[in-house]
């Protein structure tokens, strides 16, 4: 991630709310777990919540960002049962570290908040999660979908910005892809509920976030020219403000002007995914 752990914790009030929602559902199940993995745990906010709210023997927060994990070790390790592990989860099972591989077939629950969208190769990720889980173990995740931006700008705008071949698959297609990845790796999908999460905050804070484009997926590559990057940021901003608008405004940010604050609601399409390892 291109933000420090401290910045991330300050800016991620939306992810924290989703984490609390996810953990309250687990609390309502009132089950006891042996090993829980918090997949892509970030700075450890949800890992700590889980540790304090769900009965367990061990909780392992896994993430690729070393700075986030040191923050988690210092700020979100409420008890000895909590551990953090540095691991790139985009690798194949064979490439995983011995510490992760030692968990094979032992994990009772994998939880993941706002992270599955980072993985291009979903079948590979699901294969790794399936290897980690014991039979009947669960995967419970909340992750964002990319709004279909390209169907909401004109052909002329696409041509002007060189975006003719740029695709944003529909939310339904994105869920279908995920379901295929799960079913192809030994999971049964029990829930794939899609909803619009309403994030109440000051738009200035939203715009100041360095990882702003990644709220949905890393649609913008640093190699893209600045005009294209700016256009996509504008479209994302507009669709977050006006999720049902038919034509997106390529100048949404500029037209906002500079109000000192701008309390608003951002709409983020999320999926609640629940799978069981057969
Ligand atoms: C948006 S943050 C969510 C963090 C945390 N789950 C939360 O709810 O705040 C996404 C996290 O995924 C992690 N991540 C991205 N790609 C990863 C990978 N290949 N392997 C492990 N972690 C990854 C990032 O480092 C980051 O901490």
In terms of topology, how is this protein built?
Layout lengths: L4 H7 L1 H17 L5 E5 L5 H9 L4 E6 L2 H10 L6 E5 L11 H4 L5 E7 L8 H11 E12 L10 H6 L10 H13 L3 E16 H6 L17 H16 L10 H5 L6 E15 L1
Parallel strand pairs: 1-2, 1-4, 2-3, 4-5
Antiparallel strand pairs: 5-7, 6-7
Helix pairs in contact: 2-3, 6-8
The structure holds S-adenosylmethionine.
The site of S-adenosylmethionine has 20 residues, from helix 2 and helix 3.
Summarize the structure.
This is Methyltransferase domain-containing protein. The chain is α/β, with parallel strands linked by helices.
Structural features, described:
- This is Methyltransferase domain-containing protein.
- It comes from Medioppia subpectinata.
- InterPro entries: Methyltranfer_dom, SAM-dependent_MTases_sf.
- Residues 36-158 form the Methyltransferase domain.
- This protein is an alpha/beta fold and 278 residues long.
- It has one domain (5-277): Vaccinia Virus protein VP39 (Rossmann fold, 3-Layer(aba) Sandwich), CATH 3.40.50.150.
- It has eleven helices and seven strands.
- A seven-stranded mixed beta sheet has the order 3-2-1-4-5-7-6, with helices on both faces.
- α4 links the parallel β2 (58-63) and β3 (82-86).
- The mean pLDDT is 90.
- Bound molecules: S-adenosylmethionine.
- S-adenosylmethionine (SAM) is lined by residues 1, 12, 15, 19, 40-42, 45-46, 63-65, 68, 88-90, 113-115, 118.
- S-adenosylmethionine (SAM) binds next to α2 and α3.
